[in-house]
């Protein structure tokens, strides 16, 4: 994941008053897995699918 997208996700979470743990619960993944995705440690097909779900949920393009 690009640093730009990582920053947009984290900024949007702050603006919505959400934690990564809350987002992980909504998306249906563990908070550790979400953290790995956001930091770019997970890049496989499942991670890419979850990034799209995260972007949709948060309204990020």
From TrEMBL:
MF annotations from Gene Ontology: DNA binding
Matching InterPro entries: Cro/C1-type_HTH, Lambda_DNA-bd_dom_sf
HTH cro/C1-type domain segment(s): 15-42
SMART domains xrefs: HTH_XRE
Pfam families linked to this entry: HTH_3
Protein name according to UniProt: XRE family transcriptional regulator
Lineage: Bacteria, Bacillati, Bacillota, Bacilli, Lactobacillales
